[in-house]
Structures are given as C-alpha cells and as structure tokens.
Design a protein that fits this description.
Layout lengths: L13 H20 L3 E2 L5 E3 H8 L4 H6 L1 E4 L5 E4 L4 H10 L9 E10 L11 E10 L5 H16 L6 E6 L3 H16 L7 H9 L10 H7 L11 H16 L5 E2 L11 E8 L8 E7 L3 H4 L7 E7 H8 L12 E5 L2 H16 L4 E3 L6 H10 L4 E5 L1 H6 L1 E6 L5 E5 L3 H9 L2
Parallel strand pairs: 1-5, 7-8, 12-13, 12-14
Antiparallel strand pairs: 2-4, 3-4, 5-6, 6-11, 7-9, 9-10, 10-11, 14-15, 15-16
Helix pairs in contact: 1-5, 5-9, 12-15
Bound molecules: histidyl-adenosine monophosphate (HAM).
C-alpha cells in the first residue's frame, strides 16, 4: 500500500524550499528594522481559547477547527491562527510587566478544515506579526507600511491595500440592529447558515461564500456610517498617516474579516493574480481581546500573511541559477576514494560545500552527477594522479582544467571558494 498526504496537506519539496527560506529571511530582516522579536508558540491549545478569542459563530470556530480530546479528556484544537495563542502566552508569562510595547512575530503551520482548492489548504503557513501595547493610529499605519515594504522588497508591487474600520463595541450595537433590519427583508433568500447567523451574529453574514448571500450583502449598511467620534477620528488619522507615507489604498467598507475580535482598523492585502483566494495578508486591531482573556486591558494590532499564496506569486518570478556545491570530488579507485573521503571532511570544516559519489561510479557518471548538483568545480583524482601527487581541477562554467598538487589541495580549494 502506497500512502498519500492527507487531503489539503501538502509537502514542500527540496526544490521549493529555497523560495520559502528566502521569503522568511527577508521577512525577518525587515521586521528586525522595525524592532520586532520572534516568539514561538505551540501548535495545540485548548479549544476554548480559540472559541472565546475568534468567536463561536465564526466559520473558523464553528466549522473549520481540528479539535479532539486527549487521553485525559481535555478538549484541544490545532491552532487555526496565531493571535489568540500569542495573547495567551503574553498573559501567561506576564510579558506586560516588561516594556510597555511589545512587537512580536511568529511563523508556522495553521490548520483549518476548509474545502481545499487553489490558494486554500487545510494545513497552511502564516507569518504573523503583532504590536501589543500601542493604541495607534501611528502604529497601525507603520504596521501596514511594513507589510507593504516586505512585499515590495520581494518584488511584489501589483497589490491592493484595502482598509476599513469596525469601530468599537459601542458602535457595533446600533450597527448590528440596522443590519438585522436590513437582512429581515431577505430572510427567505439567505442560506440556512446565514438565517441562523442573522440571529446570533449578523456581522458574520458578510463572510458567507454563497453567491446569493454575497449579492444581498452588496447593499447592506456599513460600519463606517456608525463610527463614534473617537473611532472616526482614529480612522481619519490612519488615512492621513498612510497618505503621508505615500501609500495607495482603497477604503473597503465591506471588509469585515472573518474573526470576531477586531475593533477599529482592519485591512487586507489583495492580489489580482490568484482568483478567488485573493487575500495574501489580513489583519487589524483587537483592543479588547486581552481583557477578554482576563489579562490587563491592552490595545493591540497585527496581521498574518498567507505564505502559500505569496509563494505562488513568487514562483516563476525568481531568477534561475541554482546554488550548487563549491566542489565535487570525482575519485576513481579505492585509494583515491579513501583519500577524497578524508579531504571532504577537512574541507567542510573549512566551510566549503563539497560532495562526492560513494558508489564507485565511472568518471562519466560522476561528471553527470556533478553537473546535476550544479557543482562549481570538479577535482578528478585516479590512481595515476595519486602516483603523480597532483589532481585535475575543472572549472564547470569555463570548462578550463589545470593540475593542482594534492598535498595542498584542501587549502587551494578553500582559497578559491572563499574568494
Ligand atoms: P486570516 O485573514 O484568517 O487572519 O488569515 C490571514 C491570511 O492567511 C489570509 O489572508 C490568507 O492569505 C491566509 N489563509 C487563511 N486561510 C488559509 C487557507 N485555508 N489556506 C491558505 N491560506 C490561508 C488571521 O489569521 C489573523 N490571525 C490575522 C491577524 C493577526 N489579525 C491580527 N493579528
């Protein structure tokens, strides 16, 4: 029986990993410039943490979480996102006792039981960033500026930034009633899920993916018309700062995001290139979540990038030209192989990436192997060369060959490789 990966779970193969690593390194470099520090959190949490943080009526919690009971009956969930876990860690370790503002990021797999399709997986990866302790709006615009700078430095410029404000809980009450009134006229046309949402959490009707519900929501009232003075001022300042930073954006009053914890600023970065799953990153402010988790009331804002979607944009744009070893040693005969085996380890100690074929193949097969690995040079050593005390060094790009003394070959290769 041959096994296959579980539906919606994908392998990231060695040829693809380079793009992932470059993306992650660039993110770390840029986050460093803005003073962010990495935090690593577990993949499993109590189910309750996400239910309370993200909201019982959201699709993520009600339909998409991987949950199970462990041997002691504890109800656990594989994390569908990172924000709730970061806040849990923040409160559990009393990080708030240190500096007043914490800038954190994490990277890793998230799990949502969604219908797999292009740009949507059941295991996917996020780069998640949070600022905890600053009420904004300067930090809101800086965070948005940082994410766009990261995309730009990756060569992704053809992107759209959508922003919205979801106000505060006080604004939400009148908006919810107005929305409910609006939806009443369409009750029978809404899908069964939305008919239920209309009663429990009408804002979540905005997340529905059913065509008729999407159409009905096009003319629905929007949160922006219900903002209190403070929230309206916050949103205006955010717009002013984004303009000062020279950023293009679209105010999208239908951007409700699929999680219940948001307050005030929300945003999404969208691409025209990926079809239906066009959001490559999304986030917003969640000023009440810390208190909801029984921590000290602390404002916060963050975002998460969907790594698979960004990788899809990056693949194909990257320059060809694979990295290969500094040296491949083509040894012929047991004596040469034994000598080469020791050189190899000495060279690696000196920081040289080198390879050889341990299967005693012929010269032609070894040269093919070196070619496939994209080796920069090949050192050819057989019995004759050992007897003479000099091997043949071939530069694989110029095809030039010359003799090199074997007693100093390790130093010679080190000199060439570190040039
Ligand atoms: P989210 O919008 O649920 O936000 O996810 C962020 C990004 O993750 C999406 O824009 C998308 O690119 C990617 N994503 C989500 N689901 C999938 C999937 N099934 N397959 C592939 N990619 C996916 C959050 O998770 C919030 N925690 C972001 C945040 C941080 N808000 C504040 N701080």
């Amino acid at each position: 029986m041959q096994y296959k990966a579980v539906r919606g779970f994908k392998d990231i193969l060695p040829d693809q990993v380079g793009t992932w690593t470059r993306f992650e390194q660039e993110a770390k470099r840029i986050f460093g410039l803005f003073g962010y520090r990495e935090i690593r959190i577990p993949i499993l949490e109590s189910m309750e943490l996400f239910a309370r943080g993200i909201g019982e009526d959201t699709d993520i919690v009600s339909k998409e979480m991987y949950t199970f009971r462990d041997r002691r009956g504890n109800h656990l969930a594989m994390r569908p996102e990172a924000t709730a876990s970061i806040l849990r860690a923040f409160i559990e370790h009393k990080l708030y006792k240190g500096s007043p503002v914490h800038k954190l990021y994490t990277m890793g797999p998230m799990f949502r039981y969604e219908r797999p399709q292009k740009g949507r997986r059941r295991q996917f990866h996020q780069i998640d960033v949070e600022i905890i302790g600053d009420p904004g709006p300067r930090s809101d615009s800086e965070l948005i500026y940082m994410i766009m700078q990261l995309f730009s430095s990756l060569g992704l410029d053809d992107l759209e930034l959508h922003i919205n404000s979801l106000g505060c809980p006080t604004d939400r009450g009148p908006f919810r009633s107005k929305l409910k009134d609006y939806l009443k006229d369409y009750t029978s046309q809404l899908c069964p899920d939305c008919q239920e949402r209309m009663e429990t959490n009408p804002l979540r009707v905005f997340d529905c993916k059913v065509d008729r519900c999407i159409e009905i929501m096009k003319d629905a009232p929007t949160m922006l018309d219900f903002l209190c003075e403070d929230c309206a001022q916050h949103f205006k300042q955010l717009e002013d700062y984004l303009t000062q930073l020279g950023m293009d954006y679209v105010v999208n009053s239908h951007l409700m995001r699929g999680l219940d914890y948001y307050t005030r600023t929300t945003f999404e970065v969208q691409t025209p290139e990926l079809g239906a799953q066009n959001a490559i990153a999304g986030g917003g402010r969640y000023d009440n979540l810390m208190a909801d988790f029984d921590g000290p009331a602390t404002p916060a804002i963050g975002f998460a990038i969907g790594q698979e979607r960004v990788i899809e944009l990056l693949e194909g744009r990257e320059e060809a030209g694979e990295q290969g070893p500094d040296l491949f040693v083509a040894a012929l005969g047991t004596d040469a192989e034994d000598r080469a085996f020791v050189w190899l380890q000495e060279m690696r100690k000196k920081g040289i990436w080198c390879e050889m074929d341990y299967r005693s193949s012929g010269l032609k097969a070894q040269m093919r192997h070196a070619d496939r690995l994209h080796a920069k040079r090949v050192l050819i050593v057989g019995d004759d060369e050992l007897a003479k005390g000099s091997g043949i060094l071939r530069d694989m790009s110029t095809k030039e060959q010359r003799e090199v003394p074997l007693d100093t070959v390790v130093d010679e290769i080190a000199r060439l490789s570190h040039r």
